[in-house]
Amino acid sequence: MTVRRILSIENSDDLSILRQVCTPVTLTKGHLTTLVDDMFETMDAVEGVGLAAPQVGVTQRLVVIRIPARSEKRKDGSYVELEPEQTYAMIDPVITQTSESTINATEGCLSLPGRYAHVKRLSWVTCEYRDLKGRNLRIRRATGLLARAIQHEVDHLNGVLFIDHVSDPSTIEDIRTS
Ligand code: ZN
Question: What pTM was computed for the model?
Fold first, then answer.
């Protein structure tokens, strides 16, 4: 496995790739498996929650998401796991159903290092995709961080970045300059 370079909006060649509308996945199984492995390794190296193929320069509709386990500390100092880690590699993901309600929360992006902003996202989404084995799968009414990650990553496949959802650019926090 290889940690790949994450494209950044700072670089104009990278930005033009990040702004492309990606095509359906046409990679052969071997190439696809390698790419997915590399994307997980690349994302884990920088402790990201999601990564879309265009962020490593491949303009095909593929995303990986890893939601960390949620645990709670008990009075005796031990931890109890409330929700296990969730890992997804989604080929040609499509959001097929959405909530009407929205939730505001802080968001960042590995291709926009150091920048954070409040982004309004749908509270829940249903997402259909294929996995590496070619199975058609569906996540029904994903909520919380998973719902946000799916929307953020599917946006990448359409050349959309989280800052596009911010109506007032002055609200974008930039910790590179502070
Ligand atoms: Zn991103």
Answer: 0.94
Compute the distance from residue 5 Cα to the ligand 1 centre, in Å. 14
Q: How far is CA 90 from CA 38, 41, 116, 122, 170, in A?
A: 14, 16, 25, 19, 34
85 is catalytic: no
pLDDT (tens digit per residue) in 157-171: 999 999 999 999 899
Q: Report the topology of domain 12-174.
A: Peptide Deformylase (3.90.45)
DSSP string, 84-112: --EEEEEEEEEEEEE-S-EEEEEE--TTS
- Distance of CA 161 from the midpoint of ligand 1 (Å): 7
Measured in Å, residue 26 CA sits from the centre of ligand 1 at 22
User: Which of the residues 41, 72, 81, 153 is marked catalytic?
Assistant: 153
